[in-house]
C-alpha cells in the first residue's frame, strides 16, 4: 500500500508530503483546488507520459516520490525478473526536467517506463470519473468476470495457443500463395532445369574445355613448334644437351682445382638433368598431339552449350549457372512437394484448433460458474444504493470464432426499473446508476483481488443523501481488506473515512500554490459542515457534521 507521497515542483504544487495508512482515507477540496493535479502526479509515478509544461519552476526539476509497503504482496519474483533490489518498503521516484528528459527509479535503480507501468499494475488502481464508462465496454466486462473466475493463467495459455494458431494459418497462406505462383512458372522452370541438367555442369569445366579446344584447333602449329623445340634441345652435336654435356666434360677436368669449379660443374649437371626432363615432356606432349575432328566438334559443341546458357541466364561463370540450377531445382521441388507441406500444416492447424477449443471451453465453464453469484451480489449492493428494482443479466455464448479472450461472446444487460426491458448496460444506465454499479463491481473485486490500493476519483457522481451514506459504508467496508482512498464532494462519504486530507489553494507572495493537510477532529467537523451548508458554519450544519463522523 502507499504509505507516503512527496510531490515537488509540479503544476501548482511547490512541495507537499503526506503520510497514509491502511483503511479508508478521504480527500476533499473545492473545485479547482488541485485534486486532479495530485492524481496527475500519481499517474506519473505509475509510468504515464510526462507533460513537461506541468513543471512549476523550469529552473528546478519536478520530483514525485512514493513509498509503498509491499511486504504482504509476494512481488519478489517481479523484482528478480526485472533485476531490481527487493525492499519491503519500496521507493518509486520520477524526475522530470524542463529540458524534456524524464527518469524513473525503483529503489534507486534506473528503470524504463514500461517496467514502472508493470509494477504500478500490482500496486494501485486509480479509478477516475471516465473509468466508470468502461463498465459498458466489453473488454472491461471480460476482465471483471475473468478476475472472479481466476482465469488469468488459462487466458495466458489460450493467448499463447492463439498466437501459434495464427502463425500456422499465416504459414498455410504463404504456402498456398507460393504454390500458386510456382504453378504458373512450373513448366518453364522444368524446361530451364532440364537444360541445365543436360549440360552436366561442373564448377571448373570451362577452363578445361577452352584449353582442350585450343589444342585440338592448332594441331599443326603445336606439332611444328614442339618438334622444333625438341630438335634444338636434343639434336646431335649442335643440340643444347650435347653442348651442355661438352661443357660439363670441360668443367669436370678442372673441378678438382677448387670448390668454385666443382660447384659450377654441379650446376651444369643440374641444368642437364632439368633440360633432359623438359625434352622428355616435350616428346610426350608431341605424342599426344593428334588431329581429332570428332573430339574437336564435341568440345566445341559443349562450349557453345555453356556459352548459350551463360547468355540466356545472364551468368558470368559456371558457378553462377550452378546456383541458378539449384534455385530452379528448389522451385520445382516446392511445386511438387507443396501438397505434402500444406497437408502437414493443415494437420497442425486442426490439432491446434482442438487445443484452443478445449481451453476456450474451460474459460467458458469457469465464467459460467461465477456469473450467477456475481449478478446476485451486484443486485444486492445496488439495492442498498437505491436501485431496488435493478436487474442485471449477463449473456455468455460460445462462438465459432477465436477471439482475444476465448470463443465467448459476453454481453451485460440492465433493467433499471420494475417491469422494464433488458437493455445493454452502456445504453441503459444513467451516470449515477453507472457509478453505483461500478462501486458494486469494485467492492466485489476487492474481496478477490490482491491489489493493495484503490483510489476513487468522485465515484459518487450523480448520487446524494442516503445513497451517498450507503456508498460511503461500502467504501469503508472495502477499506477493511485494502487501502481505499476516495476523492469526494459528498459529506456523507467524507464522514466515513478514518483519515481525512484537504487540498486547498493559497496565495503566497503573488503566487498561487496548492497545498494539502491532514485534518484533525475539530477541523474535520468544520470541513464537513462547510460541505453540508456552504461557508456558513451554522449550528445545524455543525451538528449534522458531528453526527456523520459518529
Automatic annotation (TrEMBL):
Domain RecF/RecN/SMC N-terminal: 3-506
Coiled coil: 158-185, 272-299, 335-362
Keywords: ATP-binding, Coiled coil, DNA damage, DNA repair, Nucleotide-binding
Annotated Gene3D superfamilies: P-loop containing nucleotide triphosphate hydrolases (3.40.50.300)
Tagged with keyword DNA repair: yes
Superkingdom to which the source organism belongs: Bacteria
InterPro entries: DNA_recomb/repair_RecN (IPR004604), P-loop_NTPase (IPR027417), RecF/RecN/SMC_N (IPR003395)
Record keyword Coiled coil present: yes
Function of the molecule: May be involved in recombinational repair of damaged DNA.
Protein family: Belongs to the RecN family.
Protein name from the UniProt record: DNA repair protein RecN
Source organism phylogeny: Bacteria, Pseudomonadati, Bacteroidota, Flavobacteriia, Flavobacteriales
Amino acid at each position: 500500500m502507499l504509505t507516503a507521497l512527496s510531490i515537488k515542483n509540479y503544476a501548482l504544487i511547490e512541495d507537499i508530503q503526506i503520510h497514509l495508512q491502511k483503511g479508508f482515507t478521504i480527500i476533499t477540496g473545492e473545485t479547482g483546488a488541485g485534486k486532479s493535479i495530485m492524481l496527475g502526479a500519481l499517474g506519473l509515478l505509475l509510468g504515464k507520459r510526462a507533460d513537461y509544461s506541468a513543471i512549476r519552476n523550469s529552473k528546478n526539476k519536478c520530483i514525485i516520490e512514493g513509498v509503498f509497503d509491499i511486504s504482504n504482496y509476494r512481488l519478489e519474483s517481479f523484482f528478480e525478473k526485472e533485476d531490481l533490489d527487493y525492499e519491503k518498503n519500496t521507493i518509486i521516484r520520477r524526475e522530470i526536467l524542463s529540458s524534456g528528459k524524464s527518469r524513473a527509479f525503483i529503489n534507486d535503480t534506473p528503470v524504463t517506463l514500461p517496467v514502472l507501468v508493470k509494477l504500478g499494475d500490482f500496486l494501485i488502481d486509480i479509478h477516475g470519473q471516465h473509468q466508470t464508462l468502461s463498465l459498458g465496454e466489453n473488454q472491461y466486462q471480460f476482465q471483471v468476470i475473468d478476475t472472479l473466475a481466476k482465469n488469468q493463467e488459462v487466458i495466458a495459455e489460450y493467448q499463447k495457443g492463439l498466437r501459434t494458431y495464427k502463425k500456422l494459418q499465416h504459414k498455410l497462406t504463404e504456402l498456398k500463395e507460393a504454390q500458386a505462383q510456382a504453378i504458373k512458372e512450373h513448366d518453364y522452370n522444368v524446361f530451364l532445369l532440364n537444360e541445365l541438367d543436360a549440360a552436366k555442369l561442373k564448377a571448373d569445366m570451362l577452363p578445361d574445355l577452352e584449353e582442350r579446344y585450343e589444342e585440338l584447333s592448332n594441331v599443326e602449329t603445336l606439332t611444328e613448334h614442339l618438334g622444333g623445340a625438341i630438335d634444338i634441345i636434343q639434336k646431335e652435336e649442335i643440340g643444347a644437351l650435347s653442348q651442355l654435356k661438352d661443357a660439363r666434360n670441360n668443367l669436370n677436368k678442372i673441378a678438382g682445382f677448387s670448390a668454385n669449379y666443382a660447384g659450377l660443374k654441379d650446376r651444369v649437371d643440374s641444368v642437364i638433368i632439368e633440360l633432359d626432363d623438359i625434352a622428355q615432356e616435350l616428346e610426350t606432349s608431341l605424342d599426344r598431339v593428334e588431329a581429332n575432328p570428332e573430339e574437336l566438334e564435341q568440345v566445341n559443341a559443349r562450349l557453345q552449350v555453356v556459352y548459350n546458357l551463360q547468355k540466356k541466364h545472364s551468368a558470368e561463370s559456371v558457378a553462377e549457372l550452378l546456383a541458378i540450377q539449384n534455385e530452379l531445382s528448389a522451385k520445382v521441388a516446392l511445386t511438387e512437394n507443396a501438397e505434402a507441406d500444406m497437408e502437414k500444416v493443415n494437420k497442425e492447424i486442426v490439432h491446434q484448433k482442438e487445443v484452443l477449443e478445449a481451453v476456450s471451453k474451460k474459460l467458458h465453464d469457469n465464467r459460467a460458474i461465477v456469473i450467477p453469484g456475481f449478478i446476485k451480489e451486484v443486485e444486492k449492493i445496488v439495492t442498498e444504493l437505491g436501485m431496488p428494482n435493478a436487474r442485471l443479466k449477463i449473456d455468455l455464448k460460445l462462438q465459432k470464432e477465436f477471439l482475444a479472450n476465448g470463443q465467448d461472446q459476453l454481453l451485460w444487460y440492465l433493467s433499471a426499473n420494475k417491469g422494464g426491458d433488458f437493455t445493454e448496460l452502456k445504453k441503459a444506465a444513467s451516470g449515477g446508476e453507472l457509478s453505483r454499479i461500478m462501486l458494486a463491481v469494485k467492492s466485489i473485486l476487492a474481496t478477490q483481488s490482491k491489489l493493495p490500493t484503490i483510489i476513487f476519483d468522485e465515484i459518487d457522481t450523480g448520487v446524494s443523501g442516503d445513497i451517498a451514506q450507503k456508498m460511503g459504508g461500502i467504501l469503508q467496508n472495502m477499506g477493511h481488506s485494502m487501502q481505499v482512498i476516495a476523492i469526494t464532494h459528498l459529506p456523507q462519504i467524507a464522514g466515513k473515512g478514518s483519515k481525512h486530507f484537504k487540498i486547498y489553494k493559497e496565495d503566497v507572495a503573488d503566487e498561487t500554490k496548492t497545498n494539502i493537510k491532514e485534518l484533525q477532529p475539530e477541523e474535520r467537523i468544520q470541513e464537513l459542515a462547510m460541505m453540508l451548508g456552504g461557508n456558513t458554519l451554522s449550528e445545524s450544519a455543525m451538528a449534522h457534521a458531528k453526527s456523520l463522523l459518529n
